[in-house]
Specification:
184 residues, mainly alpha, 8 helices
């Protein structure tokens, strides 16, 4: 009788795990479709569309922020690998993973400072709103860094131009976010 119970429990577990994995895949597809729609909207009208974002767009903002912080070390990794592959071994951990986590902390500090400035200015924005808006404003620099990453993958030195352009666009994000919360 115990064997029959164990067998019936195991047979019911398989469809449940299949249902769970299909559910996650379905949710993932929805998130990806929403993200690409969000991304295209932010590329078409970056300032006006990003100024209207709030914590509802947090997932999209976090995805963009993660891509932004990952593209820079990946670009450096591939550029170093293309230039020095014959002479030294380029460590993925040292060149990509460690800087990625440092950039995540750096971005978190930037968002916290922006939030603090907005609170001093008596804005009603929440931390999640600021985080979502920050990620929304990162769409253009992330696109430029994606182009730079592709160029570094193929070994072209012109990736430096797109890297610098992306970082220059990044430098304008902080004042844009603060101004976007200004009540007119």
């Amino acid at each position: 009788q115990e064997t029959a119970t164990v067998t019936s429990n195991n047979s019911s577990a398989t469809p449940l795990s299949t249902i769970n994995s299909q559910e996650y895949i379905g949710k993932g597809k929805v998130i990806v479709k929403q993200y690409f729609s969000f991304f295209l909207t932010m590329l078409k009208k970056p300032v006006s569309a990003a100024a209207g974002t709030n914590k509802i767009d947090l997932t999209n903002g976090l995805i963009t922020t993660a891509l932004f912080t990952l593209f820079i070390p990946l670009m450096v990794f591939f550029a170093l690998k293309n230039m020095f592959n014959d002479y030294i071994t380029v460590s993925f951990l040292d060149v990509v993973l460690k800087p990625f986590f440092i950039f995540v902390i750096y971005i978190g500090l930037i968002v916290a400072v922006i939030f603090g400035v907005l609170k001093i200015a008596k804005s009603s924005a929440s931390f999640l709103d600021v985080t979502a808006r920050f990620g929304s404003f990162l769409v253009l620099p992330t696109t430029l860094l994606a182009v730079a990453l592709i160029l570094s993958l193929i070994g072209s030195n012109s990736y430096i131009f797109f890297l610098l352009l992306g970082l220059m666009c990044f430098s304008f994000i902080i004042p844009l976010i603060i101004c976007s919360y200004k009540e007119l």
